Amino acid sequence: MILVVYCHPFSGSFNHAELEAVVENLTSNHQPFQVIDLYADHFSPVYSNRELRLYHAGETVDPLVKRYLAWLKQAETVIFITPIWWNSIPGMLKGFIDKVMKEGPGLTHTVHKTGVKGELTNIKHCYVLTSSSSPTAYIKYLNGNAIKRIFIKQTLRQLGFKHCVWQNFGLITGSSASRRSCYLAKLRRQRFN
């Protein structure tokens, strides 16, 4: 199963167009998938006092966390669709990682004296599809490359994700309709496995 994690509040955004292109692709290729739409689901990225107390026991009072965790444990591929805001992922997506990635055997990771062992080894492929106002080269070479260096190579790798690919559509603000259209057509053809 492919799990799509979508993080943007505006249905008229380019990220939403990316989501539609990916869903069209998966549907036309008869690939089973599930979409997590964090804003449409009204997911709360904020820990309550009670929820935080349950973290180390691997428990939750949030039904969305339970549902998302079950889907993550079934997925072989995860596709994140998100903007880059202030050099990193939005707070909503960070909250998804914070609350859903539960510590404990059989959950998403276990902590040992020597570090973190990812338990989501079922996820063989991961795609991080981002858009940004800045040029991609600027993000990669002059601005610290936080998406690849921190989100992918640290966070996702610690959770057990394998074969992560990052694709960014840079300079989104001034991009032409034809450039956007070409990129969306590419997403409709791309293989996600």
Give a written overview of the molecule.
This protein has 193 residues and is α/β, with parallel strands linked by helices. The protein is built from seven helices and seven strands; from the N terminus they run E-H-E-H-H-E-H-E-E-E-H-H-E-H. It has helices at residues 14-28, 49-54, 63-74, 91-100, 136-142, 146-159, 177-189, and strands at 2-6, 33-37, 77-83, 109-112, 115-118, 125-131, 164-169. The chain is globular. The chain starts with a strand and ends with a helix.
Helix content: 25-40%
Count of extended strands: 7
Strand-pairing-aware structural class: alpha/beta
Q: Number of helix segments?
A: 7
Runs in which pLDDT lies below 50 for 5 or more consecutive residues are none
Radius of gyration: 17 Å
Biggest sheet: strand arrangement: 2-1-3-6-7
The gross shape turns out to be globular
What order do the SSEs take from the amino end to the carboxyl end, as H and E? EHEHHEHEEEHHEH
Q: What is the averaged pLDDT score?
A: 95
Distance between the termini: 10 Å
Largest sheet: 5 strands, parallel
Strand content is: 15-25%
